[in-house]
Specification:
With 499 residues, the protein is an alpha/beta fold. The protein has 18 helices and 20 strands. The strands form four sheets. The protein has an eleven-stranded mixed β-sheet. A four-stranded mixed β-sheet has the order 2-1-5-4.
Length: 499
């Protein structure tokens, strides 16, 4: 065991004790976080406009601070972008995380000197808790790759601006820099296909031990590695590869394909970072749910999804949530976001400690007939069928087909298979049965002859890469939407339908 691996075990034990303490005091930490945020921002323009000085508790906060999405908060954010200080948080941000919005164009999410350390601390804790639990620290001696956005930052009125992963790249601890790949030059390449080709060349002969990134793009990297090297599996190429760290999407639909590419299973850690804050991370290998980061400068609120679109939706603090219910996630942060609806939905799996699963996006669903099918249901149904009728799914998208040329409407599943099921008809029938068990409203529509069972349309293997390229969103933090209530994406994807 190398010195770095030995020292990491000592640090990991200390981190585990620290995380155990704050996770066991979650309600107390959240109450203190809200108080600290209100006090700190009381003299800002937003704080004065919302009477922060009069807020004494959570009920006061709800009365004074309405729920907002990016559009709702945009007038304040625009002032921050324009360079004005003391608008949402004291002073000015140190970064803007630039993301692509659907209705707002580019979004500029502020990151402050107070919020930035929590992004890196949570990522570090995810790795350290893995070491503390498993005793495996050998991976710190190998090479580590982080498939991420470009670290080259622009300036917006004197504030460094870029993608979150590119910003975080500037805060990788010094002790990991010698182990870290790809090079700054490779990471700075904007064209995703050129970037992956360059990274393949830089890493193909290196002792890779940890690989991190959004699963779809890591899968693409693996495929290119095997194509270029002629190797059968990633494990053959990287025998010391031990740990996969990912976030952004549900990994389970990718798992069969990943395990084939890798040549077996490797340990994995799921994280839940967002430009708005580092929300949660996996802390146990035998539990897929994520530990809520209640001591990370974020005050959490939760809206039951059934009331989200009400005029006055129900708002709950952490003390009021229940296990198994779907909630829309709302954040107030030390980056100056207040009552901010992030757009994600989660459900709690545990209240001691508080642990969550990400169930989808509040605006990503299929509900042409009131069935409100969500990501958790389609991903869960697909995972069950993949376990029974082996196939390898590269990516998929579900959308309603309201006016077919003949017959009843249906849900269309557009799927790229790396390996198609032997009997696609049986696969579709079993998938539809699983969906009916997941969603009783969908089942009623099928039984009532309002909808017919789902239809699978098979796409070319590179369909989703080509689709994302056509939208200028290939690579980086961009993710394929798996559900839609319209056919905008589905009709575009049909360009790559298998003949």
């Amino acid at each position: 065991m190398g010195l770095k691996a030995w020292l990491s075990k000592i640090v990991a034990k200390r981190a585990a004790v620290k995380v155990e303490k704050w996770s066991s005091e979650a309600l107390k930490r959240q109450e203190q976080t809200l108080s600290d945020l209100i006090t700190k921002a009381s003299s800002t323009e937003f704080g004065e406009a919302h009477s922060f000085s009069q807020i004494k508790n959570y009920d006061d906060f709800k009365k004074q601070v309405p729920l907002r999405d990016y559009e709702g908060l945009k007038p304040y954010i625009q002032k921050v972008v324009d360079g004005q200080p003391d608008i949402l948080w004291p002073g000015r941000p140190i970064y803007f995380s630039k993301t692509s919005g659907t209705t707002s164009g580019a979004k500029y999410i502020p990151i402050t000197k107070e919020s930035m350390p929590h992004h890196t601390e949570a990522a570090k804790n995810a790795l350290l808790l893995y070491i503390a639990e498993t005793g495996n620290s050998d991976f710190v001696n190998g090479k580590m790759i982080f498939l991420q956005g470009s670290p080259v930052l622009e300036e917006k009125n004197g504030i460094a601006t870029g993608r979150l992963s590119g910003i975080v790249a500037h805060h990788v601890p010094g002790y990991l820099q010698k182990n870290r790949l790809p090079s700054f030059e490779a990471n700075s390449i904007e064209d995703w296909e050129t970037k992956v080709a360059t990274i393949v060349e830089e890493t193909r002969n290196e002792p890779m031990s940890l690989i991190s990134g959004i699963p779809s793009w890591v899968q693409h990297y693996f495929e290119k590695l095997l194509e270029v090297t002629g190797k059968s599996t990633i494990r053959e190429l990287f025998p010391s590869f031990q740990l996969f760290v990912y976030g952004g999407v549900n990994f389970e639909p990718y798992r069969p394909r990943f395990e084939k590419l890798i040549g077996g299973r490797v340990d994995s850690i799921e994280t839940y970072p967002a430009s708005e804050g580092f929300i949660a991370f996996q802390n146990k290998q035998d539990d897929k749910s994520l530990l809520l980061n209640v001591d990370g400068g974020i005050f959490f609120e939760f809206i039951p999804v059934e009331s989200y679109f009400d005029e006055n939706p129900t708002r709950l603090c952490l003390a009021e949530v229940e296990v198994g219910k779907n909630y829309a996630l709302v954040l107030s942060t030390n980056a100056g976001l207040w009552g901010y609806s992030i757009g994600d939905t989660v459900k709690f799996t545990s209240l001691e400690p508080y642990k969550i699963l990400v169930t989808g996006r509040i605006k990503h669903f299929t509900s042409a007939f009131g069935e409100h099918v969500i990501a958790e249901e389609v991903e869960g149904a697909l995972n069950e069928i993949l376990a029974e009728l082996p196939a390898e799914v590269i990516e998929f998208h579900v959308a309603p087909r309201l006016n077919p040329e003949s017959g009843l409407p249906y849900h269309e599943w557009l799927i790229s298979f790396a390996k198609e099921p032997e009997d696609l008809t049986a696969f579709a029938e079993n998938l539809d049965e699983a969906m009916q068990k997941k969603n009783i409203y969908y089942a009623d529509l099928i039984k009532g002859k309002i909808l017919r069972p789902l239809v699978i349309t098979t796409l070319q293997k590179d369909a989703f890469n080509e689709f994302m390229k056509s939208k200028g969103k290939l690579g980086g933090q961009n993710k394929v939407p798996r559900l839609s209530d319209n056919r905008d994406n589905a009709d575009l994807l049909l360009q790559w339908k298998k003949s």
